[in-house]
Amino acid sequence: MAVREELDAFVAKVNSNPVHIANEKDRVFQIELQESGVLQIVLKNGKLSVAEGTPNEPQVTIKTSDKNFSLLLKDDLNTTMAFMTGGLKIDGNIGLAMKLQEIVKKYQ
């Protein structure tokens, strides 16, 4: 399955039961994938959506490979190791990158 399809499936899963994001602030997580390009995960009004490119101003940008992002969406990526070895780079608020990981964990 392509990363975009995996991300769309994750977003659908979250939106079908948004209890864990209902009280989150609106924010934009930008994902810069080495193979697939730029995607944005938009959290607005307690729902997630995906945008291609950069239509929104992100609060955090995560740069990684498609493979690593796929693993992150499955909560199978050792993010600390990936970050320390350069397989995962964060620009902006690192706390928000960790928040995205928390959301992923809650929906496994």
From the structure above, extract its key features:
4 helices; 5-stranded mixed β-sheet; 108 residues; Nonspecific Lipid-transfer Protein, Chain A; alpha+beta; single chain; 5 strands
Briefly characterize the structure:
Residues 24-105 form the SCP2 domain. It is built from four helices and five strands.
Question: Would you give an account of this structure?
Answer:
- This is SCP2 sterol-binding domain-containing protein.
- With 108 residues, the chain is α+β, with helices and mostly antiparallel strands.
- The chain has a single domain (3-106), classed as Nonspecific Lipid-transfer Protein, Chain A (2-Layer Sandwich).
- It starts with a helix and ends with a helix.
- Strand 2 (37-44) and strand 3 (47-52) form a beta hairpin.
- The protein has helices at residues 3-16, 66-73, 79-84, 94-106, and strands spanning 27-33, 37-44, 47-52, 60-64, 88-92.
- The relative contact order is 0.19.
Itemize the secondary structure elements and their pairings.
Elements: H1 3-16, E1 27-33, E2 37-44, E3 47-52, E4 60-64, H2 66-73, H3 79-84, E5 88-92, H4 94-106
Parallel strand pairs: 1-4
Antiparallel strand pairs: 1-2, 2-3, 4-5
Helix pairs in contact: 1-2
Mean pLDDT level: 96
Element order, helices and strands?
HEEEEHHEH
What is the CATH T-level topology? Answer: Nonspecific Lipid-transfer Protein, Chain A
Number of helices: 4
Structural class: alpha+beta
Terminal CA distance: 17 Å
The CATH superfamily bears the name: SCP2 sterol-binding domain
Question: Helix share of residues?
Answer: 25-40%
Strand tally, please? Answer: 5
Broad CATH class: Alpha Beta
| CATH architecture grouping | 2-Layer Sandwich
Strand content is 25-35%
What characterizes the major β-sheet? 5 strands, mixed
Instruction: State the strand order across the main sheet.
Output: 3-2-1-4-5
What gross morphology would you assign? Answer: globular
Mind telling me the C-alpha Rg? Answer: 13 Å
Whole-number tally of structural domains: 1
Task: Please mark out the parts with pLDDT under 50 across 5 or more consecutive residues, or reply none.
Answer: none
